[in-house]
Known about the structure:
The protein is of the alpha/beta class. The chain is built from 8 helices and 15 strands. The longest helix is centred in the middle third of the chain and has 18 residues, at 149-166. The two termini are 18 Å apart.
Amino acid sequence: xxxxxxxxxxxxxxxxxxxxxxxxxxxxxxxxxxxxxxxxxxxxxxxxxxxxxxxxxxxxxxxxxxxxxxxxxxxxxxxxxxxxxxxxxxxxxxxxxxxxxxxxxxxxxxxxxxxxxxxxxxxxxxxxxxxxxxxxxxxxxxxxxxxxxxxxxxxxxxxxxxxxxxxxxxxxxxxxxxxxxxxxxxxxxxxxxxxxxxxxxxxxxxxxxxxxxxxxxxxxxxxxxxxxxxxxxxxxxxxxxxxxxxxxxxxxxxxxxxxxxxxxxxxxxxxxxxxxxxxxxxxxxxxxxxxxxxxxxxxxxxxxxxxxxxxxxxxxxxxxxxxxxxxxxxxxxxxxxxxxxxxxxxx
Length: 347
């Protein structure tokens, strides 16, 4: 996977980042500080000084107050700036990308494609695709703007269906989470949700200090492909229906997708890239995968099965050998098995 290299204090520095619990917040600052440049930040007063009293600063404070350790900021002044920063997003494998001034329903007319109505998230997913494993987490208009729960749910379901229909099967749909904006104390629910995902252990369902939820949404209400927050009498508010936009399968469940991302990032197998391929190397790759999967048993998975580790000649480059590794895992909280495929290029 690409390394994260952030611009910090007007100089480049490599930052040791937890690959499984970092977030990039994209939004509008009150200043031009670090404009269209990704910056690692860790101090609220410094962020307030540099970015001003802004949505970006407020989102940083929410994440920091909820104990997120690795927070990156990207100052853009409008949604069109996303076209300028797409290459940077491709090259940096953030765990979560959190736009705060972009609603999932925001769109533009693509002048290069017959003025086609195109959603920004559609553009982002289609352009990043397989470059990294980053997950976009978006929300939409706040629940307080709606007359009642029925109006809110109707709009969220319509938006979700529209986004679902706009995404192609090749859009890496598992990399999109839509969360309803129905928390009383947070103007952008995606920030606190990602904070929970970053600070909750992989083996535990994500929780945080969500505060009170607006509306009494429950499992009997229709919630198509979007998460929402629910109040309880004896326990704190929880996030429910935590799904991504994958069409079907257990991989659609975000808590299971987290484990898949964990495995893919840890098994990048970079130590084998560029080496002359031999049968011994194939066996070493198998052993490396087997040892890592074994370490996850009784932590986040019940069982695993490495179905194949095979080498193929690259059709486009006869001098390159691609090793495809196929495996199945059974998540601790799921009866179905999930399939994972890793591919690495060797010489």
